[in-house]
Write a structure and sequence with these properties.
Elements lengths: L2 H30 L21 H33 L4 H12 L4 H8 L3 H14 L10
Helix pairs in contact: 1-2, 2-3, 3-5, 4-5
């Protein structure tokens, strides 16, 4: 794993968590919805013992557990990334890495924040990646 791949993991994990949160919101909306009554006569040998919304609630609980586990991994990963970035000696390079990989800023936002043009920001980024020392046991997602 390259230093860039290691640093980029936080962004991807954050995207995955956001996607799971959106799915959780849809499940919650479905769980509180009123199901339509059955108008036709239906003969069934055994009636289900659970309420119709019970399956949604079970899925919600499982998804919440998954999201919490992913958040724990993200917190650990960002802590490891901050340590790696702090080890870079040049402050401009540190700031570019922090803005890009901790705060998920675009190149334009980083340039505006650091009062530098895009070419300078990318040059600092390239130099910073060369100065990154990978941790012994990097977190992999």
């Amino acid at each position: 794993m390259t230093s860039k791949e290691f640093l980029r993991q936080a962004y991807r994990l954050d995207q995955r968590i956001q996607s799971d949160i959106e799915e959780l919101a849809r499940l919650r909306a479905m769980s509180v919805g009123i199901s339509a009554p059955v108008s036709g006569e239906k003969v069934q040998a055994s009636l289900p013992s659970d309420a119709p919304f019970a399956r949604c609630v079970e899925k919600i609980l499982l998804l919440e557990e998954k999201i919490n586990a992913e958040i724990d991994v993200l917190v650990g990963l960002k802590e490891q990334i901050r340590g790696v970035i702090a080890a870079v000696s040049n402050t401009d390079e540190q700031m570019v890495l922090r803005c890009r990989y901790v705060h998920n800023m675009t190149w334009e936002e980083i340039g505006s924040e650091m009062k530098a043009n895009a070419r300078t920001v990318r040059r600092w980024h390239g130099a910073a990646l060369l100065h990154v020392v990978m941790p012994k046991n990097p977190i992999k997602i």
